[in-house]
Amino acid sequence: MPRLLIVYHSRTQGTRQMAEAACHAARAEVETTLLTAAEAGPDDLLAHDGYLFAAPENLAAIAGVMKDFYDRSYYPVLGRIEGRPYAQMVCAGSDGDNAARQTARIAKGWRLREVQPPLIICTHAQTPEAILAEKVIPDADLERCRELGAALGAGLAMGAF
Questions:
Q1: Of 103, 157, 142, which is closest to residue 15 (Cα–Cα)?
Q2: Please, are residues 113 and 161 in contact by the beta-carbon 8 Å criterion?
Q3: Angstrom distance (rounded) from CA 56 to CA 30
Q4: How far is it, in rounded angstroms, from Cα 151 to Cα 129?
Q5: Closest CA to 93 of 125, 116, 137
Q6: If residue 130 lies in a helix (H) or strand (E), which one and from where to where?
Q7: Pairing of β 50-58 and β 61-62
Q8: pTM
Q9: pLDDT, tens digit (0-9, with 9 covering 90-100), for 92-149
Q10: What is the rounded (10 degree) CA torsion for 146, 25, 29, 34?
Q11: Which residues partner with 53 through β-bridges?
């Protein structure tokens, strides 16, 4: 059975909610592992057939803990996961595009195959208090995360990717 790895980081719980929604839907299709970026590493990437990366955008960039995961994993798996499918989600306060570009560049270096465009959920948090507050992702946006997880899982299960 194909295996999907979901790696995420979440300080204010928005990205965690998104990753969990996608994970729940993907598990109906394939074996799915949900790990925080601090827990995940090269062995996890090697043990799975596809990936969903979920990161918050911090200061117009991917969160440092997510970048640390990529830094720790990049060279140990380089040339060993080429062609595997991936998708990504970004929890952003206002934009999310730069964080999505950063993850896409890393995935391009790994020669992964993007199978869905980035899903960016915008929380519109613009003040220091709103940015640091625990997030509650609306049901409609969580449904989009579930759809992404289900589609990625189904594509892996059918061998479409």
A1: 142
A2: yes
A3: 25
A4: 35
A5: 125
A6: helix 128-132
A7: antiparallel
A8: 0.97
A9: 998 999 999 999 999 999 999 999 999 999 999 999 999 999 999 999 999 999 999 9
A10: 110
A11: 7, 88
Tokens 């560049």 appear where? Answer: 105
Residue for token digits 């952003």? 92
For residue 111, give the CATH number of its domain.
Answer: 3.40.50.360
Q: Around 3, how many Cα atoms within 13 Å sit in the side-chain half-sphere?
A: 8
Q: Cβ(40)–Cβ(81) under 8 Å? A: no
Cβ proximity of 23 and 6 under 8 Å: yes
Phi-psi region of 5 (alpha: psi -120 to 50; beta: other; left: phi over 0): beta
Indicate if the alpha-carbon torsion angle 104, 20, 139, 55 is positive or negative: negative
For residues 38 and 11, give the distance between their C-alpha atoms in angstroms, rounded to a whole number: 12
- If one counts the domains in the chain, the total is 1
Q: Where are the beta strands (DSSP E) in the chain?
A: 3-8, 31-36, 50-58, 61-62, 85-92, 113-114, 119-122
Structural domain span for residue 103: 3-158
